[in-house]
Amino acid sequence: MTRIYAMANQKGGVGKTTTAINLGAYLAARGLRVLLVDVDPQANATSSLGLDKNQVSATVYRSLIDEVSLADSVLQNPRFKLALVPSNPQLAGAEVELVGLLGREYRLLRAIQTVVTRFDYILLDCPPSLGLLTINALVAAQHGVIIPVQCEYLALEGLTQLTQTLDLVRKHLNPKLRIRGLLLTMYDPRTNLSQQVVSQVRSHFGDLVFQTVVPRNVRLSEAPSYGEPVLFFDPKSAGALAYQALAGELVRTDDQR
Amino acid sequence: MTRIYAMANQKGGVGKTTTAINLGAYLAARGLRVLLVDVDPQANATSSLGLDKNQVSATVYRSLIDEVSLADSVLQNPRFKLALVPSNPQLAGAEVELVGLLGREYRLLRAIQTVVTRFDYILLDCPPSLGLLTINALVAAQHGVIIPVQCEYLALEGLTQLTQTLDLVRKHLNPKLRIRGLLLTMYDPRTNLSQQVVSQVRSHFGDLVFQTVVPRNVRLSEAPSYGEPVLFFDPKSAGALAYQALAGELVRTDDQR
Ligand SMILES: Nc1ncnc2c1ncn2[C@@H]1O[C@H](COP(=O)(O)OP(=O)(O)OP(=O)(O)O)[C@@H](O)[C@H]1O
Ligand SMILES: Nc1ncnc2c1ncn2[C@@H]1O[C@H](COP(=O)(O)OP(=O)(O)OP(=O)(O)O)[C@@H](O)[C@H]1O
Ligand SMILES: [Mg+2]
Ligand SMILES: [Mg+2]
Question: Which of the four, A25, B27, B100, B225, has the lowest number of CB atoms within 10 Å?
Answer without folding.
Answer: B100
